[in-house]
Fold this protein.
Amino acid sequence: MKFKLICLSILLVCTYNLNAQTNNEKEFAGFARKQDSLFNKAYENRDPKTYETLLTEFTTNYNKLTADQKKNFSGYYMSAYYNLCCTYSLMNKKQPALDYLEKSIKAGYYNYAHLREDTDLDNIRNETRFKTLAQSTREIGDYLYILQKAGKYNLDDHREIPKFTYQAADNPHLVSLRKAFKLDSVAGTGNDASKVINLLHWVHNLIPHDGNHVNPEVMNAMSMIAVCKKDNRGLNCRGLATVLNECYLSLGIKSRFVTCLPKDSLGIDVDCHVINMVYVNSLKKWIWIDPTNDAYVMNEKGELLGIEEVRERIINGKPLIVNPDANWNHKQSTLIQDYLYSYMAKNLYKLECPINSQYDAETREQGKKINYITLLPLDYFKQSPDKTEDTNAKNGTTFIRYKTNNPATFWLIPDADKPLKTK
């Protein structure tokens, strides 16, 4: 079996924007790619002696990196251990194979699905130690399993949380946005659900998704659209959800952007996803809107679902449907298995959104305070403190985060005096 890039989401971090890398990082990146090729040859030749010599050289250079730099190249590190494990396993040398598998897991390997399917490991699969190591990997890398364990909340959690606010459509900035892009025309004359979906398509077609770059410093729709046009660039998922959120607000449609996060008990998963929750008055509910993938989600009856409903259906194995034209940058279709049952199963563990939904919500400014609420399942490993407050020394912005275990608090419907009833 060919040399495997086993943790793609982490390995992609190794190739992050080269302009942001120091000379030391660029030098190590070149070295890591060269060693990667040599590891591959040693694996194919079943030559563990050469492989171990290469690994010693790699580890020596890797240990010279700073802690932050190590995170950026950790994919190479854990893969080097993992594939040496495969080499020994294929040679039926069980003890060193298990030793290097354990080292790979300690270095951050967590691809449980691959571990189960990799035929290179068949010679050690029935070993008691392998089963123990595989289970430890499942606890951090089997995302559906992790999400299913996170189904319980606490409806009696009534911690004090500031009230959600939604900026009125007559705000001068929102009025300018609405007029500049003729958003009434974009939304169309259909019902409110069709207007929500038309705006989703418009933003998806206007701005490509670009996860390799940070968003512009000024994070409002007018500015970010202008920067994208001028520099012929896109936005990451947070930028796209921010632009779409402000477009909804400009038409008087209540919405929030939601950061969907993994459990990440090891602190190694740098990935998350940001989508929109949009309140459709005619349906009396929030619905799932994802501008990165031009996606919304339905049940088997074709009824639009919200984030809470999608999460519950993934956990309980109920049918889900993604709109057939969902796609990433018009280059590949968004398929339900990869999108919902793998990627979003990972990222629906905990959820966070700003308490104040408004224009320019996250642009950093001296003295500005941005309030967030985080919804945590009861099995999350870090429940306290109830509130955190941190001020960024560089830009002077204060970030205040409130925690709750009560989904009714998080999914509160707009202008409601009481929390939305939830299961």
